[in-house]
Amino acid sequence: MFEAVIFDMDGVLIDSEPLHLELEEEIFKEIGANVSLEEHNSFVGTTSHYMWEYVINKYNIPHTVDELVEMDRKRYFEYILKHDDAVKPIEGVDELVKELYSKKMRLAVASSSPIEVIKLVVKRLKLESYFDELVSGDFVKRSKPYPDIFLYASEKLNVVPEKCIVIEDSNNGVMAAKSAGMKVVGFINPNSGNQDINMADVVIRSFSELNYEKLQNI
């Protein structure tokens, strides 16, 4: 029996990848980094530190990682603060969270986003009371696809990795969860780019395909 479910945020709780891509594309143009869409999509699920370090090194950008991370995060945070409609749950995911909560499952969000963004999003979704833990990629040393964030989340939940299920939409996230020794539900989100999530234990296109019983039967 599984005891905990760990949700990714971007692309799973909210359909935010298009906004991230749009705002990051603006920064790429401003700093003169000719990043292709395919290359950009490869960063889905990773921390902003990981992405900007790669961009700086490949395109010889005269900025520090911290400068670009701050620029990126500030732009995104200010946008969602000003636009209430920027944060809406993906259809059916809020019902799933509430069902799992009613079944006494331990619940966490484990996202590469900064913690202030995670807190704002779950508050906007009116789901803050359902999650036991909110975990940012900033809390661990290595970004997805390394397993660190999910291992940290399972430790905070006090549930062994083998009894945790992760719901992810990105290749990096699925790889991280599998490396952590957890079962994974891969959610196909067309707005997250062409993500290879075939290594997930179950692949879904809609949260209507998922409930407590189906998770327990994985």
Describe the model.
With 218 residues, the chain is an alpha/beta fold. Helix content is 43%, strand content 12%. The protein is built from nine helices and six strands, in the order E-H-H-H-H-H-E-H-E-H-E-H-E-E-H. It has helices at 17-31, 37-41, 48-59, 65-82, 93-102, 115-124, 148-157, 171-179, 212-216; strands spanning 4-7, 106-111, 133-136, 164-168, 183-187, 202-204. The protein has a six-stranded parallel beta sheet with strand order 3-2-1-4-5-6, with helices on both faces. Helix 1 (17-31) packs across helix 4 (65-82) and helix 3 (48-59) crosses helix 4. The longest helix has 18 residues, at 65-82. The model has no long low-confidence stretch (mean pLDDT 95).
Percent of residues in helices comes to: 40-55%
Low-pLDDT stretches: none
User: Helix segment count?
Assistant: 9
Spatial order of strands in the largest sheet: 3-2-1-4-5-6
Oligomer: single chain
**How many extended strands?**
6
Report strand %: 5-15%
Quick structural summary:
The chain has 218 residues and is α/β, with parallel strands linked by helices. It has helices at 17-31, 37-41, 48-59, 65-82, 93-102, 115-124, 148-157, 171-179, 212-216; strands spanning 4-7, 106-111, 133-136, 164-168, 183-187, 202-204.
How are the SSEs placed, and which strands pair?
Elements: E1 4-7, H1 17-31, H2 37-41, H3 48-59, H4 65-82, H5 93-102, E2 106-111, H6 115-124, E3 133-136, H7 148-157, E4 164-168, H8 171-179, E5 183-187, E6 202-204, H9 212-216
Parallel strand pairs: 1-2, 1-4, 2-3, 4-5, 5-6
Helix pairs in contact: 1-4, 3-4
